[in-house]
Structures are given as C-alpha cells and as structure tokens.
C-alpha cells in the first residue's frame, strides 16, 4: 500500500502546477498532464475519480481522502481540496503581480466584464473570466488560467450568500473594484436586500483596506456612499462625473447610442447593445480604458465593435417566422426584470410587441411577492400587445391577476405547445427569464 506525506507545501504544489501547465476539476475534460482537484459536491465526490484521471493523463490528483491518497503516489493528500485550490490561485496571482480589476453587481456584471476586457484588449494582453466562472470555484480557476503573458486581469465575482465577495477578494486580491449596481437578487441566500448591499460592498471594503481604486457609478443611489473615502474614477450622466455620457435617440433601431464627453470633445457612440440600461456599463468600460491609458478613439471603436452573445441583451434580427428577438434569458431578478420590461415597452417599433417572461429563481420567501409585483406591473402596461408569463411562480397568480393581453403557462413545456401550434409572425419579442427556465431553446420557435 502506497504511503503518503500529508504535508505538501503550497510552494511545492505551485511547482507541480507550473510543470503541469493547467488545472481541472472536471474528470471528463482536461488537458494532458493537468493537475486534478478532487472537489466534492452534493451529488459527487471527486476523490472517486482520482485514479481514473491519473490513468487518462493527469499528472497529479489533489485529494482529501487519505484512503485514496494511499493508492497512488501521484495522489497528493491535503486537508481540504477546495481550500487548497483557493490557496494555489492566490499564490499564482501574487507570483504574476499583474493589475487585477474585479467586477461584481446584481445586474450587468458579465456584460460589463466583456466591455471592459474588450476595451483593454485594444492595447493589452488581458486575461478575463470565461463563461460563468465567477464563484468560489470559478474565480480560483480563472486566476489559475492567467499566464505570464497577460498584462491585466479582469475577474467577475458573483455572490449568492453573505460573505461570498469577501471570500473571493481574499483569493483574488483586486487592485481595482467595479460594482455595477445593487438590486434585489438571490434573496434566498442573502436573507434580505440589506444582505445584498453588505455582501456586494465587500469588494469596496477590500480595496479600501489595501489602497486600491474604484470605478464608481456616480448616478447610483447607494454606491457613492458605500465607496466613501476610496480613490475613485467616476462615470455617469451627472455633469460632475469624470467620464460622462448622455443617451441619444435610437434613430429607428433598438441599440444603445450615447454621446460621450471627454475633455473638450464629444463622441457619438453607437453600440450593438440592446437596452438603454447598458449606458453605465459602457461608461464604466470607458473609465477603465482611460485609467489604463487607452486613447479615447480606440475605446470608442472597441465599444462600437462589441457584439453581445450568450443570451445577454442579444438582438436576433430575423427568425424563420420573420420575428425580431431580444434575448435576455441568462439571468433574471426583480430589478433586472423591471428594467428589461420598461426598456422593451419604450422601444419604437412598427411591429406588434410580445413579452415572454419566465420565473425568477433564488428569491426564497420573497418569491411570491416579487412575482406578484411583476405580474401586476405588466398587467397594466401599455404598448405591448401580448404578454406570456411562464413558470410555477407566475402561474400561481393566474386567477388573481388578469388582463386581456396577459396569458399564463405553468411550465416552459406548456408554452412550447402553444408556440408550436400558434406561432408568432412579424413580431418584436422579448425573452426574459432566469437561466434555469431554459428560454434559449425558445429562439428556434419564435
């Protein structure tokens, strides 16, 4: 039976990581010689796959089951695999020593991360969060993907429980902080809106304590107070903002257009982002670009060239049924739902408008009230011909909140039957729901 020494240091593990070239937590998908971290979940135990991944090409497996560690000399025993993954990520981040900008917020953080990274890439090699790797596992994995060639890191941080952001900042050690906004989301985990505010503000707390800087949305009702005393670059519509922009008419389209004021010059910026609510997200990218010395002309070009993907404020101009789609179906909470609804209702279009709204998840005891608020609001909305409310939370209100243009569906499958039998033609359609509602699959039927 293989003996083992449960005292591998982080320095020793880091040398193995550098030799391996990559890490993985997925036993089904990894690069040759990767360092495997055997994480545990509610329904799986990565320790059980350690020997398998070693046979299939991983160089080492980091495990916290001593019985597994005894079976192969390439199993590295630690007390806690997740903690070790975090420690290794922090060590790597310190070894690289590059500037790191952390982004969090209730709404718009992924879009903002993409905009900031797009702008910074005009002059720098940028390492940025990929996909939804923004939690206690994703942030360490993001950090461990950074390379010596990277000059700046842009890291997205998500939170669903109190203390989550503090945990992530202790790992990533950001130099710059950007909070997009603070709204009503993940109330099940936070317990209250105040819990959301406290947790998101932990990003400011870190940079305040470590001499960092914030990119601050000065129009926001909460953020300026939370960032009090921290060196900041402000952006917004207020004349006092260091980076200032005002909305422009859509000129027959649905995309965000704004006038950017910089020094004594103005720039008209025409983006491919659907929704005027993206103005502060775009301005934050301008602020970041200017801070890192990127010429304003290059910043404008980058913003105009950016195309959103992954069902986030995404416009699909034509479908097989001649509909135009606005797909914002990756995330939904009471704040983002209301913003999306208002923006859609305000759009000028010759086409009849249809809203298809799905349940909002992770609201806990506030779920019934928040879904009722949305249903009551859209039931009185003008400028939208048809509204479909989809999911169990919305359907529970179908006898209580009624309107001639309001239709309820208990599930996505029930909606699919209707879309298949009586499809829309020539309409402008908004798809908005939490990702768990799987609204992305509706695109083919719209």
TrEMBL record:
Residue ranges annotated for the Mur ligase N-terminal catalytic domain, each copy included: 23-92
Keywords: ATP-binding, Cell cycle, Cell division, Cell shape, Cell wall biogenesis/degradation, Cytoplasm, Ligase, Nucleotide-binding, Peptidoglycan synthesis
Catalytic activity entry: D-alanyl-D-alanine + UDP-N-acetyl-alpha-D-muramoyl-L-alanyl-gamma-D-glutamyl-meso-2,6-diaminopimelate + ATP = UDP-N-acetyl-alpha-D-muramoyl-L-alanyl-gamma-D-glutamyl-meso-2,6-diaminopimeloyl-D-alanyl-D-alanine + ADP + phosphate + H(+)
Pathway as given in its UniProt record: Cell wall biogenesis; peptidoglycan biosynthesis
Any one Gene Ontology cellular component term annotated for this protein: cytoplasm
Key word Cell membrane present: no
UniProt-listed Enzyme Commission number(s): 6.3.2.10
Gene3D superfamilies, per the entry: Mur ligase, C-terminal domain (3.90.190.20), Mur-like, catalytic domain (3.40.1190.10), MurE/MurF, N-terminal domain (3.40.1390.10)
Enzyme class: ligase
InterPro entries: Mur-like_cat_sf, Mur_ligase_C, Mur_ligase_C_dom_sf, Mur_ligase_cen, Mur_ligase_N, MurCDEF_CellWall_CoF430Synth, MurE/MurF_N, UDP-N-AcMur_synth
Pfam annotation, one family: Mur_ligase_C
This protein's record includes keyword Cell cycle: yes
UniProt-listed GO biological process terms: cell division; cell wall organization; peptidoglycan biosynthetic process; regulation of cell shape
Mur ligase central domain segment(s): 103-288
SUPFAM superfamilies: MurD-like peptide ligases, catalytic domain, MurD-like peptide ligases, peptide-binding domain, MurE/MurF N-terminal domain
Residue numbers binding ATP: 105-111
Occurrences of domain Mur ligase C-terminal (ranges): 312-434
A GO MF term: UDP-N-acetylmuramoyl-tripeptide-D-alanyl-D-alanine ligase activity
Role: Involved in cell wall formation. Catalyzes the final step in the synthesis of UDP-N-acetylmuramoyl-pentapeptide, the precursor of murein.
Protein name according to UniProt: UDP-N-acetylmuramoyl-tripeptide--D-alanyl-D-alanine ligase
Source organism of the structure: Porphyromonas circumdentaria
